[in-house]
Amino acid sequence: AMWKGKPVIGGNVGGIRHQITDGENGFLVDTVEEAAERIVMLLKDPDLCRRIGEKARRTVQEKFLMSRYLEDYLDLFKSFEASYTLREPLWNKRSRPGTRSRR
């Protein structure tokens, strides 16, 4: 739902608390009554519904898409590359990865 730009109302338990920031990109509730209140609030205020939905979609784009994880990994590898200088090859022609030397 967040990816589709829809506001989410979730129980304030478990992993969903890591995805939703209450009142910003969705709502976290502790009771059925709180959930009903948030539903009514969203139905009465289409602009709020749209804003929460847009922030929800942005949250998914910035934090949870595979491309986000790939960017993080690439940054990590680049930091290794910047701090490490290879003085000689890791293997020579006689000893390649996956082969044994015949000495």
Write up what this structure looks like.
By secondary structure, the protein is mainly alpha-helical. The protein has a single domain (9-83), classed as Glycogen Phosphorylase B (Rossmann fold), CATH 3.40.50.2000. Helix content is 48%, strand content 6%. It has three helices and two strands, in the order E-E-H-H-H. The protein has helices at residues 32-44, 46-63, 66-83, and strands at residues 9-11, 27-29. Strands 1-2 form a two-stranded parallel sheet. The longest helix has 18 residues, at 46-63. The chain is elongated, with a radius of gyration of 24 Å. The model has no long low-confidence stretch (mean pLDDT 85).
Q: What is the string of SSEs from the N terminus onward?
A: EEHHH
The biggest sheet amounts to: 2 strands, parallel
In DSSP terms, counting alpha (H) and pi (I) runs of 4 or more, how many helices?
Answer: 3
Indicate the percent of residues in helices: 40-55%
Low-confidence stretches: none
Shape: elongated
Percentage beta strand: 5-15%
Averaged pLDDT: 85
Tell me the count of domains.
1
CATH architecture type: 3-Layer(aba) Sandwich
